[in-house]
């Protein structure tokens, strides 16, 4: 299986993937938007402070800051910041967030080697295809067992993409994928903590590390993924190899990518949309709400029927998403931040929300019913929320998301320059010069992050 994927990656050219180029730029634009929104978050700055004494030659940009670091550290930090706010892209079939573990090392490596934008886009598209195809082959049981699929599968995309950027032959790419299998980790239990972001950062960094090892001649077992004691069987069930290889090179997983309008788990977006509709129907009279019932699939309840103790809980909470939609009429970064999470009126409304299983509802759908003190009962059902494949965000939506990320992240980066840079990535001969042109002088960022 690794060799089949490796042969495909080695043989593919920009001409083969060019039709996916616009979607790849959309995904990278969203990646920058989410990374800019959290680059100054303590989770990122503490990790940066921890890694700084061990960083090698500073070749690669840390998005949203001015201080570069070596490619391995930059991969780790940019993947963390892009994933931190639960605002990154989503492959609906697997719930993988494709860009963070793949774009981070691809950009860091390309910058250190002064590669072209087309090389970056080609590797990125191929890496996303690999991570999502491997995810397809082990879904849904892999995630259900508690493995955080963005981390565990993202490392394969990172390894494949970086091996491609390094110009490795098929044998070397296969070894990189096999080496990634020895480093794949991340569990769902850690989702409400910063440990989730560590595993996403490791997927990016260790995928690059696997490719660099393969470049130096490191080898891996040829069936490290699908073998009797390989990755797939030890971390899930026997892989569905047909899903992994079906229409390889003809059907592209990046074409199925989606982008979030809300910084919350993807399964909560229908809840928010339904509550926004109900808010208008009750003329914003939230003080008259007696109770709220949210019905959805087992996945919705497993991920989100939880008490809220902090902002991380809030981003994966049915109850908090209801409170934002009904009481505030919006659900942006500020609505999931600490000051909003602890507001008494928000906490009071959360207490009125009950979640119920409706086994017939598809994952990602929600039905919200509320009762008013007048006795009136209102219901809204949303199956395809804003941002889904059926109701996708447009290019201008993603541009505005990036501008908002710059504002909420208090970044001194210029949003319009980033937007322009991403849209013209396929025309750039030197990604290093492009990324370096986006960074403000080092001193201002260094002062702000200490």
Explain what this protein looks like in three dimensions:
With 450 residues, this protein is mainly alpha-helical. It folds into two domains: 315 residues, Orthogonal Bundle (2-methylcitrate dehydratase PrpD), CATH 1.10.4100.10; 117 residues, 2-methylcitrate dehydratase PrpD (60s Ribosomal Protein L30, Chain: A), CATH 3.30.1330. 53% of the residues lie in helices and 6% in strands. It is built from 23 helices and four strands. A hairpin with a 4-residue loop joins strand 3 and strand 4. Helix 1 crosses helix 10 and helix 9 runs antiparallel to helix 10. The longest helix has 22 residues.
Which structural traits does this protein have?
450 residues; mainly alpha; 2-methylcitrate dehydratase PrpD; 60s Ribosomal Protein L30, Chain: A; 23 helices; globular
